[in-house]
Design brief:
34% of the residues lie in helices and 25% in strands. It has helices at residues 46-53, 76-81, 99-109, 121-125, 128-137, 153-165, 183-196, 209-215, 233-236, 240-247; strands at residues 6-17, 20-31, 35-39, 61-66, 69-70, 84-86, 171-175, 201-205, 218-223, 226-231. The strands form 2 sheets. The chain has a 6-stranded mixed sheet, sandwiched between helices. A 4-stranded antiparallel sheet has the order 2-1-4-5, with helices on one face. Helix 7 links the parallel strand 7 and strand 8. The two termini are 29 Å apart. The model has no long low-confidence stretch (mean pLDDT 87).
Amino acid sequence: MSSSTTVLETRALTKEFQGFRAVQGVDLRVTEGSVHALVGPNGAGKTTLFNLLTGFLKPTSGRILLAGRDITGLPPERIAALGVARSFQVTNLFPQLSLVEHVELALQARTDVGRQFWRSDRILSRFRDQAMQLLAEAGLSTLAVRPAASLPYGQKRALEVALALALSPSLLLLDEPTAGMGLEDVARTVELIQQVRTGRTVVMVEHNMNVVGSLADRVTVLQRGAVLVEGGYETIRTDPRVVAAYLGEPNA
């Protein structure tokens, strides 16, 4: 991991909704090659911050820089084209399409034929080998021809990671990748993130502090839309402000 290169930065980033500040003057620096976790209690502004970083929301004020380039206010497709991919907290898949078809469509989307409103087996077949490689990376290759609707929840989240990786991102943003999972699925997801972090930077929103401790090189704790404290996991987990704001809450 690089010790100095900043791949993602925000400067005094703020988002207001009818006078309510969901994100308040956030200064964030994410180091290239790191896993950077955003944590905090419900309502801390984590998902709003994610939506700002990926263009799904436009900030009220402040700047967002990607590898030194100002991407403030760019739409999601422009940001994605710059090497940023994200998963969502709520799984959103096509129930009847197979896993491999999902990944083939994601691979097609970043080519010249990606904007067409139709697909054919001939077009999609050119992406079959690469799609299978991505499914293997996500631990799903043996399920390639199954419809997405037949997957248990944990494997649906793994498929979403494979779809994000199909965009060949240098920066991967994961919104609560273990939410709603049992212990076995959580362990598999942690292993998957460890694998896919190679050669890329990962920013994740996560409630499970055991997962954060297993994965994160750096942790930013948010409270009421502002940065409360930032540092390594072992530092923040014993900070009295974090204990009061996050770790001390039920189900934290």
